[in-house]
Every structure is written in structure tokens, then in C-alpha cells.
Give the backbone structure.
Amino acid sequence: MAEISLYLRHNKNLTVMLIRRQITDAIKRKMFKGKAIVMVGARQVGKSTLFKQIIEGEKSTLVLNCDEPEVRELLTDANTQTLRLLIADNRIVVIDEAQRVERIGLTLKLIVENFPSTQLLVTGSSSFELKNNLNEPLTGRKYEYHLYPISTQEIIDNFGLLMAKQQLEPRMIYGSYPEIINKPEEAKELLTGLADSYLYKDILSLDNVRRPALLNKLLIALALQIGSEVSYNELAKAIGSDNKTVERYIGLLEKCYVIFTLPAFSRNLRNELKKSKKIYFYDTGIRNAVLQNFAPLALRQDVGSLWENYFIAERIKHNNYTGNRANCYFWRTTTQQEIDYIEESDGAFSIFEIKWNEKRAKTPFPATFTSNYPLKNSVVITPGNYTEWLYI
């Protein structure tokens, strides 16, 4: 691995806690404003670590881990008197893995309403359960943030541009989970463990998921199709299931932050594809672990689609952290004209072709699109210029 790995090995006291996360300051600015701060994201992306960094030095802090049965019991349908005894004189209360508590939203609402001088910090790894429990009770009472695996900007901010460039291949192969960056010599083992257990932990806890083997088949099928249009009917046939089950499982994988969907863009033209979609993984290391393929890029047949997945996932992190509220799509016509990635913001479009081979960087964009829609940017993304679009 490149220098970041050597740096981490030779500095045994260095941990991922020293990697400053991009949204740290944004969260600190919202502290003690009378609302809960909710951080969602996949397991192991560093939510608890970030909150620990934020509350470091605070003496009056209560941390409640909802993986512990006693904590879940205390917080389930808690009343004001119970919460008063629990919170006591703590200025900050951290509730970790809140999705594990039934009707947690009502409990959090009581805390926000009855303890206005206490800052409530909440983490959750399953938006399926957490948002269903939170949205109505905490309407107008929360700030919500999404934490992703380490972003390109975070690598640049903490280790420099040269390091980010040197880390491109290992990040495409092994992904950007904090522990993977922190323990590169154990990357394969750690990723395999993540793919074998954590991916399913939240999903399989839901009542309507009964077939983990089918879920694994679906993940493999999706991992093989990144960068390609996805047909639920074809997926169902491939894994021996039905369309409704495939659609439901894909929805759950999205809500647990394993994958995300990119819809087709269509407005005016008759030959634009309207109902197609592509599916990508939030982390390419998880994708490669699902396939058990950690081969070097020079030996891979899928490097183009892997690069496409990597850049789009990084761009989504960038947009989320910088407040760029763009609608994201791909575009294709029945005559096979296509654009890999599109962002629509304030009525204008930024269009991206994503090419691993820099010799193909002069690929022209389809005039069918450029002459019909207002453009803000049109750029071919390659390993030589990608950081320019992932850093501010």
C-alpha cells in the first residue's frame, strides 16, 4: 500500500480518531440550539468515533449504547421521571445505535422537550427503522447528518493531495471504511467480516426478511452489474425469486446504506429511457468483498465499472457534505447514446463521462442532450483530474 499505510504502521498510536471528518464543524455549530443532532450511516463508518471527538473534554456526558439490553429497556417507552433520573445533570447525552430501541422517536422527543439545556446526540445505522421511528416525533426538533466512509476530501485534508493520488488504487480495491484505512494489512480479512456479518445485521433483524441466502445471491448479482442498467425481472430470474422480493430487498439494502440507486433522466425527448436505473455500492471495498475479488487494477476486467462506481459514490459524499443539493441521474437513449452521470441543480446540468483510460478523455458528449438542456459543466473524469471534483 502507499504512504498512508506505511504512515499508519510506523505510528502505532495513530488511530482513525485523528482523521478529522468533514462534517465536524457543521455539527459543532448546531450544538445547544434546542434540537437533537442525529447522525445516520452504515455500521462501522465512524459515527460513534466522531461524536466521541466532538464531546472530548466535556465532563458532564452520558453515553448510552443501545446494543446493551439494559439500555434498550430503559429507553423503550420511557417517561419523563425515568429520563430525569437517567440524564441527571449531564449536559450532553449520546444515544448510540438508536434504531435498536422500539419507538425511540417518542423517547427522544421527550428528552428534547423536557431537557432544553441538554444536547442530545443520536446515531443510527438503519434508516429503515430509525427514520420510521424519528420523522414524525422529531419533526422540527432535529438536525440530521449522513456520515459516509472516509471521503477523498478527508484524505486530502488529513494527509495531502499526493497521498490521495497514491491511495486511489487501494481505495478502489479495499474501500474507505475507517478501520480499513487504519489497518491496511488486515484489509481483506476485515472487509470479508464486514460483508459476511454487518451487511445483514440490520436487514435480517427485520421481520420480513427470511432468506439470507437469497439476499447474498442478490448482492452478488448487483455487484456484477455496477455501471449497467438493472432489470428487476432479470435479477429475479438470476437468483430464483420474484420481482416483488427483489424490489423489497433492494429497498432494504438502500435503507441500510449498502447500495444506492441512480435513476434514468428523462424530460422531453421521445427516445430517452424513462424507467431504467443503475445500482452502485456506497463503498467499492464492500462490493469487492461480496465478490471476493481484491485483484490489482491492472489484472481486473471490471476496472472501468469499478472506477465509475468509485467516482459517483465519492461525488455523492462531496455533495452531501458541501450542501450541494443536486438531483443525480444517468442518461441513455434507445439509440444507445449515454452520459454516465448527471447532476441537476438550480435548473442547470453538470454532466460527467467517467473514463479510467485517460486516452479516451476527449470523448464527445451527445449533442442530443447538450442541445436540449442547459449546461453548467461538462467534464470527462479520469484518474488525472478526479480530485478537482471531489475537493473544495
